[in-house]
Amino acid sequence: MRPWERLIGGRRSAAVRPPDAPRRRRTLRFGAGPEWSFAQLGATAAATAGVLVHLGALHRAVGGFDGVWWLLALVPIVSMPWAGSAAPLALWGVLLVGWFVLTPAGTFSWWSLVAAAGVIVGHAAPALSAASPPSGSFSRVTVRQWSRHVLVALSAAGAVAVTVAALSGRDLQLGAVGLVVGLLGLAAALWWVRTSPPATPE
Length: 202
Hints:
The chain is an all-alpha fold. The chain has one domain (34-195). The chain contains seven helices and two strands, in the order αββαααααα. It has helices at 3-15, 38-62, 75-78, 87-102, 111-129, 140-167, 175-195, and strands at residues 27-29, 35-37. β1 and β2 (35-37) form a beta hairpin. The longest helix is centred in the C-terminal third of the chain and has 28 residues, at 140-167. The radius of gyration is 23 Å and the shape is globular. The chain starts with a helix and ends in a 7-residue tail after the last helix.
């Protein structure tokens, strides 16, 4: 052993973490509830941002609505412990029905593309959150996989928006049939994301 190693060896051995020791993460606890990692809190913040983006786009598309709708932005925070349940789906069901109820029938707005981005992020965030315990985190590989899924969904939303914009000025008599087909396609996409999420590496 070299002299300098003898002098600082004890201090170094006490400070170095064994290779097999679990990595300690910073967590927060709210009251008597479980500990939450910063990664999980970030996922909740993303879900809340998705709701706010969707509501903001809806507000611009219709020129305003009752302020009670903004309270729905609190749902991702309140339902944080139940990210893997049907609560996020119920929230987005209400928001999507609200879009069709509040916007004038037969109209198209480019704000719908912004709203779609809010739907995608606001739905993917709680789905990712459900893949880890409250105090857990997400690997870089998992985040990249989910990011690719989000980008694919955003690209599909953009393609649909361009197609609808091109057809919106024509009288194609689609009416309720187009609405039903669109809702069924959206429901199928959400079901696929829930039942076939990106694989988490072992």
